[in-house]
């Protein structure tokens, strides 16, 4: 098994988080504890959940953390839509973020499927 640092899902999540930080650097100071903090926290959560999940003892636990990472990815997506609606980002920045979200979503979905296949099936008695 690869180290979490070598997983495509982790690397794409790091790239997304970097773009989120760059894109929110110009948000107004009034948003420091609002949308800026929220979208940054969600993007960091994706990275953290992938790493922490791989350190868990069972595939079921790992899958659960990957599910949380996926939820945080959706949260970032929603917040990017909101940021554009509020005029905090322009169309080009929105597109850059959306592209990074898509690039992060594909390997994360693949990793979730991989872990699901590795889980031991339960038998009903």
Task: Describe the protein in words.
With 125 residues, this protein is an all-alpha fold. It has a single domain, classed as 23S rRNA-intervening sequence (de novo design (two linked rop proteins)). It has 4 helices and no strands. It has helices at residues 8-24, 35-54, 59-85, 91-118. α1 (8-24) runs antiparallel to α2 and α2 (35-54) packs antiparallel against α3. It is elongated. It starts with 7 loop residues before the first helix and ends in a 7-residue tail after the last helix. The model has no long low-confidence stretch (mean pLDDT 93).
Structure classification: mainly alpha
Runs in which pLDDT lies below 50 for 5 or more consecutive residues are none
Note the main sheet: none
Helix content: over 70%
Output the helix-strand order.
HHHH
Q: From the 3D coordinates, which CATH architecture would you assign?
A: Up-down Bundle
N-C termini distance: 33 Å
**Rounded average pLDDT:** 93
The name of the CATH superfamily reads 23S rRNA-intervening sequence
The dominant shape is elongated
What is the helix tally? 4
Strand content of the residues, in percent? under 5%
